[in-house]
## 1
Amino acid sequence: MDTGRTIPLADKRNFSMLTRVLAGAAALAAAAGLATPAAASTPPSPGAEPQVVGGTRADQGEFPWMVRLSMGCGGALYTDQIVLTAAHCVDRTGADSSITATLGVVDLQSSSAKKVRSTYVYRSPTYDSTGGDWALIKLASPVSGIPTLPIAKNADNNSGTFTIAGWGAAQEGGAQQRYLLKAEVPFVDDSTCQSQGGDYADLKPDAELCAGKLDTGGVDTCQGDSGGPMFRRDGAGEWIQVGIVSWGDGCARAHAPGVYTEVSTFASDIAAAAGKI
Ligand code: ARG
């Protein structure tokens, strides 16, 4: 556990003070949970508490390409040796063996979990200027028997209903989760998202995609889900990644949708970078 990195949110400039405080608490919980597995959150009984926020437990194998990263982020397997995550989950481009990826399980404490170290990180060079909250993590060795999640290469699937999943907090300020949670969120168009005001007014329409239950809240990604995929079925019925968990004002609040990296905008940059690392 690299606690210096467990506060990926600290580098999201758009965060409110309250969110920073809550994020810090969640990050510490993540650190504690991962350092002493027994202290991780108690196994949620499926369907009992609102769980991502407002979700339910994913089945083993349902989203096989989901990855948990040791700094307290999510990710998706992009090739058999590269994980796609968020730029704000990593420090910089360069050699990096500090990250452990856990793959192949919904239960992070499962004895059948595959754990692979990182060797290299590629952080989107445009993240601080024009946006593009994405990064690639190269693993020490390829993983076998785990499908990858294809990324959207055009905007065709950038609307409709999306699936989100992660081991992050099940409520704002809550603990990291032992079991993968999933939920569905509707697309929110850019102008509606921007008109929510506050940080949303600065939304980068080409680089970011909003999703959430605008009027009611209640379903969302949250701290620790960052870097994980937002995905849906494409026209052929196959899962395709359209977003990367990036930020939000708190979690699951009404009129505060989740904001996701618009993957299709960066698809060719991602592919080019993956080919080089
Ligand atoms: N930036 C957060 C993280 O590091 C994810 C926040 C997502 N927030 C939301 N309301 N959708 O885990």
Note: The first helix runs from residue 17 to 35.
## 2
Amino acid sequence: MREKPNIVVIGTGGTIAGRGETSSNTASYDCSVLTVNEILSSIPEVSSLANLRAEQLLQTGSENFNNEHLLKIGKRISEVLKDDDVDGVILTHGTDTIEETAYFLHLTLKSVKPVVVVGSMRPPSAMSSDASLNLYNAISVAVHPTSRAKGTLVVANDEIHTARDVTKANSFKLEAFRSPYGALGYVVEGQPRYYRMPWRDHTVSTQWAIDDLEALPKVDIIYAYGALDERVIDTVASDARGLIYAGTGNGNVALHIVAPLVAAARNGVHVVRASRTGNGVVIRNGAQPDDDYGWLVVDDQAPQKARILLMLAMLSTPAERSALQAAFYRY
Ligand code: ASP
């Protein structure tokens, strides 16, 4: 038995690595300037929780993250987790797209060891910054045995969220993260307290392994509004292999958009109806005859996370629409 768990902290930038000109700069600052070592050394309390090893993988705002970044992060974490001496991983990350990276890891990592993704809404230099407590809490979650086998977790603002459900729902406040069915638990004084479990398949029970993935297919998102120019659909569909249509309400599609989306599906593009509300289910064959049009629906997933899931689902079941639809109901 080790005296303290061994945790690897992988840095990628974001506000948690940011610095403002003054302490009153809570929302305008330079992003991704502090190294992960600098962040950790400013929080001496964390050394009582674990033996920490820091690694700088990237140093950029998460709004820049593309599919190659996802693969790079996933592969590195997978490699680190294979080391028997490593008990868990923390990924420091910008908050803008933390939910997409976390969901990608949740679906593709093959380990029951805790992986916790953490960022902050205010840089460490700001008054009432959430950076140090979020990171301290993330480490306390990663070292705790109850955090094993729960998939990838996101810790923010004293809450533990499952990567499947969490989304960033506010642009500047500390309480920016929301899961539609509630957080899995709290972190109280450095102790995780869980109240629920992730229900849908993740990590070791999914059909994807990050080590086997070399590239992800191009899937784009179109945001709906009544005056949307139908040429946008044609342009996107000419290049992408999948298209998430973030429709109004229950995945509704404006009358003039139906024909280009049907054409896209007939040309082999996987068209998925989602909701720009970011909450609730999209009903298959409800507002639109999805069977007739060859379209898919997201179940309850937000468009940006449906994109992650569709990219993966297309890898294991190309061209089989029923299998792709099943993936939305399984994960
Ligand atoms: N732009 C930043 C990022 O996502 C914002 C943040 O970290 O809160 O990297």
Note: The domain at 6-205 is CATH 3.40.50.1170 (Rossmann fold).
